[in-house]
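Recall that a protein's primary structure is simply its ordered list of amino acids. Everything else, from secondary elements to tertiary packing, is in principle encoded there. The following example makes that idea concrete.
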Amino acid sequence: MEPFYREFGDRLREARKAKGASQTEIAAGVGLSRTSVANIERGRQRMSLHLLLAFARELGVEPCDLLPPVHPEPDVTPDRRLLEFSPAGQEAFLRVMRRARRERVDADS
């Protein structure tokens, strides 16, 4: 399971639950089976780009809200303790760390 798809699935699940919708309801809205939605939420199934737009429309969110953040250091593996945070908590932590890094670089310049 690739981290990108796992993170996307986590965001999809959070948006679905925030809307109060079931996997079956969302599946019907985007033209998939409930099993496919469950597999996408678990990061086990890849999907086509048009489904990103269909999920966003069905959930009433922007497509970018479902996409995982782009990490500027793709070769860096986060400490596994970071994975214990929710996706929103992970992103908040990483924002703070990026800001601290920029400030350190600016101070060194």
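The CA atoms of residues 49 and 63 lie 10 Å apart. The mean pLDDT is 86.
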